[in-house]
Amino acid sequence: MVVGFLQSKDPRCPVSDTSIKKFLKLGVQMTLENELGKELGLHLDGADHVSYQDRTNVITKSDILYSTEPLAPDELAAMSEQSILISFYAPFNPTNQMDTLAGVKNEVYSMDMIPRTTLAQSMDVLSSMASIAGYKAVLLAAEQLPRYFPMMMTAAGTVKPATVLILGAGVAGLQAIATAKRLGAKVEVFDVRKAVKTEVESLGGKFVEVEGSKDDKDAGGYAVEQTEEYKQKQQEKIHERVSNADVVITTAQLRGRTAPILVTTAMVNDMKHGSVIIDLAASTGGNCELTQNNTTIVHDNGVKIIGDSFLANRALIDASALLSNNIFNYVNTFIKEGALHIDGENEITIKSRVHPPQNN
Ligand code: NAD
């Protein structure tokens, strides 16, 4: 059986020396599209049963085909019968390319649909990348802020520590708290999920309380839309904390919807000159009203707003290593005794299949 990997515009490499060794132990052959990994200095074709081939060969000869980016319609049509495609189709995202799958005969699986369960943790690419992004967001902010992060007592005077406000304490937010604390900043955190308060406090963050939030135990750990009354109270509290902060890192997402606006223009107007906002939710609309995706803007009052949801790519080597581990762990669930095996009872397989649609 052949497991094939395609190149994408995405700079992360989906295979590593380690993941290739693990695949080979399963008794499969591997084909990699020419140049895959070479930009990162990886030379992956040393072993028997691993070969570099052109894109068409990889598409037509693989039983399990992986591509970080969705395939073009003619490429989908060229896949061999019975083979499966593993990619990222983000069906909950309004910009998804699900319509390109209409009429496709092969089964298609989307790694962003893997359930956020304990069993699936080792395959959870969203968490791997969010964690790196949270870390890099803090380093970027520290670099851009025209101030120190830690308190400094010097002969020339004492410098107060910077205050970092983190909005959203999911995977990225928690990593951002830990990183900002290590750099000596004062860290304040807000999240609609009250459940994260103890986690925030155990990392040394101060949890900003707003009474009356709504949790939904059926939402799989994700935040849910809040009442208007709660949103009003939340806005007032966030306004107060944003005006006081030197750095604001926003990570709040609502699965399947545009990101909630947490930082309004009025709040930015009240921030100090030189303060920095890093918006990790930029690609789904942003948590700051002024955010422009993939752009850095400087507001009239000198506040810098950086809209970037792909900060994980700034740690390309580790992002690639974690991605390739996640992919191996997921693809492994499709291999039994060296052959393609689709386990119709496996919750991870069922939930991550995006084509044919689940109701067919
Ligand atoms: P996410 O990217 O969907 O959102 C980031 C954070 O923003 C979340 O904590 C969310 O509550 C918060 N948020 C949303 N709206 C907000 C608002 N209006 N104001 C303030 N904060 C707001 O979250 P994520 O990092 O993907 O994690 C989602 C959940 O899944 C979490 O409960 C996380 O612990 C859980 N999770 C579980 C596993 C696992 O068990 N395998 C893995 C990863 C994440």
Description of the molecule:
The chain has 360 residues and is an alpha/beta fold. The protein folds into 2 domains: 2-117 and 318-355, Rossmann fold, CATH 3.40.50; 130-309, 3-Layer(aba) Sandwich (Rossmann fold). The chain is built from 10 helices and 18 strands. It has helices at 17-25, 55-61, 73-78, 125-144, 171-182, 197-202, 228-244, 265-269, 316-331, 347-352; strands spanning 2-5, 29-33, 50-53, 64-66, 84-87, 107-110, 152-154, 157-159, 163-167, 186-190, 206-207, 247-250, 276-279, 295-298, 304-307, 335-336, 339-340, 353-355. A 7-stranded mixed β-sheet has the order 3-2-1-4-5-6-18. A 7-stranded mixed β-sheet has the order 11-10-9-12-13-15-14, with helices on both faces. A two-stranded antiparallel ribbon has the order 7-8. Helix 1 runs parallel beside helix 9, helix 4 (125-144) packs parallel to helix 5 and helix 4 (125-144) runs antiparallel to helix 9 (316-331). The radius of gyration is 22 Å and the shape is elongated. The two termini are 28 Å apart. 41% of the residues are buried. The protein binds nicotinamide-adenine-dinucleotide (NAD). Nicotinamide-adenine-dinucleotide is lined by residues 116-118, 120-121, 124, 126-127, 130, 167-173, 190-193, 221-223, 251-255, 260, 262.
